[in-house]
Amino acid sequence: MAHIGDLIAEMLAQYGVEYVYGMPGGQTTALHDGISRRNDRIRHILMRDERNAAYAADAYARLTGKPGICDVTVGPGANLLPAGFLEALNASIPMIGIIGELPLDWLPLKEKGIASQGFDQLSFFKSCSKEAYLVPSVAALPELIRTAFRVATSPRPGPVALIIPHDIFDADWDEDLLKIKVDDRSVQMPYMRSCAPAGEIAAAAALIKRAKRPALVCGGGVHGSGAAEIVTEFADKFNGLVVTSLSGKGSVPETRDYAAGVLNPLGSKAAIELIKEADLVVWCGSKVSQNTGMNWSLPLPEQATITIDFDPLEHGRTFRPTVALMGDVRETVLALGTALGDIPEHNDWLARISEVKAACDTDKAAEIASDMLPIQPPRIMNEIAKRLEEDDIVVSDASFSAGWISGYIPVKKPGRQFLFARGQGGLGYAVPGAIGAAAVRPNARIVTVAGDGAFSYTIGELATMCQYDQKVVNVVINNGKLGWIQLWQELYFNNVQSVDLESQSSVPGYAGAAAALGLLGIYVEKPDEIGPALDRAFAHDGPSVVEVRIDDRATPIHSFKRRLREKSDTPFPRPGTVYRLRDWKVSPDL
Asked: Which residue range or ranges hold the Thiamine pyrophosphate enzyme central domain (predicted)?
């Protein structure tokens, strides 16, 4: 007999959802029963941990633009979702969590788990979602599903919690509930597009034409708008510097002469140096977060600024722009490019960009060629880069992995081929993110890079990769420690505590664990073993783990490198330093 689980599965399929990531529970079994009758249109992927269901759905959403769907049961299932929800909320990723709940009339029994697994889920998810809804009746459910898709995809996108009581899940399905069709505008983000006013476009174009050293900073909003190709066309005629945030990597090909890589403390040294020399900075789909804004030292007081974002609250959050262009990134950049016409040549500026990049490339070449033992991570990244094909996807975990990827694996074409967990920056994203990515890109090779600390979070999901026979190469850069924290403690506290992940008598074997779970596992200790190991992994028809023993002193953070090199007593900011936002004032007119 048909039930409300059939209604939900049918609506998800009509919205074009191909996969739901999650873990069944007694209260949500109706949903899985409904999906099982529609496996030609929608499938469920069983995760080993509910936290990872949200990360997998996040990766699905980043690659498709559709809301990623995850499902969990009431109580212990629900309380594991917030890490992934906060990642999606802060990174503006559309997601819908279908969350089980106790029956409606059990409301007085939720407190303190009197009714098994009960707690106030609505208040809980209000704190980590764009919006959260408790479904009050069968009749209200279809409209709340439509609302969830609209809210998840509309500016700015984010996660929506849809909490469905057990008695509603199991109720009979009345097909009349589907008379109102799905809203095709909310199948994919952005829900609707808009463009900045013509007068502001003209003011921005005039500002760009007067600039001598213009710079363009591309954030994750470029990918959210599906604007990478349009932004690349704009950058080609911009005659200036182009850098990206981690989330914006892929907004332009990094093979272009004007592209200087990722602007971040663990990103490109050239980007960090050159951005300070610009007289105009165009912030395109970037919220100018702490890391992209280099602890909000950017923009400099003397720099004119243009901001492009569909969220009105971003035009002045940390500085007041000279010109604010409120609108969809793709539409606004198209209009701005048209308004610009011919742009003056900036030969001196382009020559300066080339000079700084060349000096940095010399340093990088030496790192890549290093035969040091233990292995230096740049050499690993270079070997990965050699083997990547045009449609392959790289999924980064948090911490140093993001820096090694961003600095040593270049983007060759516009588009979102690199996934970074920067909404929260929490460990444990790469493996479940790869599961979500592999489902929607079955013909591509998915590559993850994670430190041993991050990889430890999600070893259980290797069984998921194996079960679904996904083509994922997991590269574990193992230094035996929480590397970032070790160096932080050493440099700022002169003490190291609770960072060792192994002892002399107990050394975790991630490649061995992978082999035990049915994957191909390869362990690497020497530089000349990296290439052959990756060849085997890339050729393997299934998931693999390549564990590489690396130097525990290696770091992509330039300030850490400098401190380690200098070993000086020069004062430096203590942890917990409060960075004050610059006083509000209009950037100068060029």
From this structure: 201-336
